[in-house]
Amino acid sequence: MVGTTIEFFDFYIYATAAVLVFPALFFPAADPASATLQSLATFALAFSARPVGSAVFGHFGDRVGRKTTLVAALLTMGLSTVAIGLLPTHAQIGMAAPVLLALCRLGQGLGLGGEWGGAVLLATENAPPEKRAWYGMFPQLGAPIGFFMATGVFLLLTAMMDDAAFFAWGWRIPFLASAALVAVGLWVRLRIHETPAFQRVLDRQERVRLPIAEVLLRYPRALLLGTVLALATFVLFYLMTVFALSWGTSQLGYTREQFLWLQMLGVVCFGATIPLAALYADRHGRRRAMILATLAIFVFGLCFAPLFVAGSLGGTLLFLVLGLGLMGLTYGPVGTLLAEQFPTEVRYTGASLAFNLAGIFGASLAPYVATWLAGRYGLQSVGWYLCAAALLTLGALLAAPRRGHDAGVAGEEAGRAHVTCMPSSYD
Known about the structure:
mainly alpha; 21 helices
C-alpha cells in the first residue's frame, strides 16, 4: 500500500498539473481549449507506455521475482517524476519543453505499468484463500490515498502563494518532493520477502522463458476478457478526476480551490468503498461484486449531466461522491479478479498487461474524448460514453470463467491440471 500510494501520488500530480499548469507553461496557444487538449494528450502518453512497462517488468517479475521488480518500478517512476519538476518551460527552450515533458510522462507510464501487477501479487499471493480480495485491496488503496495527497499538495500551495509564484516555481514542489517519498518506498520494499507462490514456481523449475509470448499464445482469451472487464473502472475514474476538474473549472465556473476540495471529499468515499467491496467479494465472489458495481456505473452514466451542473456546490459534491464511491466498489475487487485469470508463472505479466491495456482504451482516451464529446454534443454525451464502457465491461464479466471463490472452490490447488485452457486461481 505504501509503494502504490507513492507511485499513484507521482502519477496524479501530473494529472492535476496537466489541467491547471501545463497548458499555460508548456503548450502556449491563442486558444486555451487547444492548449488543454494538447496537455491532455501528453497525459494520455503514459497509458501507451504502461503495457510496455507491463511486458518489461512483468518479464522480470515472472523470471526473477516480485520484490526486485517492484524496486525497479518504483525507481523508474520516481526518477521520471523528479525530472518533470526540473524541466524548463516553453518560454525558456521552446518546443523542446513539451517534448521533454512527454518523455518524462512516458517514464512514469513505464514505472506504473510494472508497479500495479507486482503490488497486487505481493499481497494476494501471501493471502489466505478466503481473504484474497481483502489482501488485494490494500495495494488498491494506494490510488485514493495517492490522489488525496496529490490534490492536498496543490490545495496547500494555492493557499500559500499567489498565482504568479505558483506558476513561476510553486508547481514544481510536488514533483521534487516526491524524491523523499520514493526513498521511503525503497526502504520498505527492500525489507519485504518473495511470495510463497512464486517460490514454489522456482522450486518446481516452472519459470517460462518468455512470459509475454506465453500469455499471448496460450492465454489470449484471458487477456482479452481481463482488459475489457477493467475498462469501465478506468473510464469512470478519469472522467471523475481529470475531465471533471477540467470541465468544472473551465466551463461550469468553479474555482480551482472549490473543485479540488470537492474532489478530495469524493476521494474519501472512493477509499471508503474499496474495503467494503473487498469484504463483499470475499463473501460472495469477486465476479459478482464487479457485476453489481458495473450495473451501478451504467445507471450513474444516465444521470451524469443532471448531477454535474454549474452553480450548485451540493449537486457537484453529490456527483463526485457517487461517481468516486462507485469507483471504489469496482476498484476493490478488480485486482484480485484479474490475477485469478492467470497461473503463477505468467501472472505478473498477464494481470499487468490486461490492467494496463484497459488503461489505454479506458483511461488514456477518457479525458480527451469526453472533452471533445461535451464540447460538440453536450455533457450528457459523456454519460452515454460511460454507459457504453459499462456495457462492454458487463459483457466481459459475464463471459469470464468462474474461478476461486466465484466457482465455489474450497481448495484452490484443484485447477492445476487444466492450466492450459483454464488456469487455476492460485497455485
